[in-house]
Amino acid sequence: MIRCLCTVYPHRSSFLASDVPLVARHFNYPLHLRLSTSSTPSILSLPPASPISLSRSTPNLILDTLKRGEDDHFSSSTSPAKYGSTIIVRVYESLGGEGRGYLEVGEELQVAEASVCDVRFSISLRTEKQRLTTSDLSQLLERDLEKLEITKNAQGGGIRIPVKLRGFEVKTFKLSIKPTSSK
Asked: The whole model's pTM is what?
């Protein structure tokens, strides 16, 4: 049995001036809530507000992905901030026009630099005896293309990174976090 959901969303004005893409995203990725009791571990509690947000004057820019960088040092015994880490942010333009806005990063994340990166995945053909190694793959992921200007956020700490996208463009940003000093 195949289960399919669909909806009709009436809206004012034209599609290009509407919030249809945002409503469609919420419909396709619904928020799942979990009932928590006092005996439930605190790790299941709701997380605080995200230190990364997208400010925009039009609804056509969508912040799609926040994730750790592929080359980050992952260890259960040490803090990733000790070695420095990266955060990958993906934004897309949803209506076919130009989109402008800012990625706003809270001051709790000490961003050293920001860049536009690509995530193209192209592997040359190899023979059966030549195996693709993990280091080969990591060199193909999240390669810096262009450094971005970071400005202080005048409205209360943190930084702002300008975002400009063409119609239906997807852009990936890499934020390098300063490592904490070991005492």
From this structure: 0.71
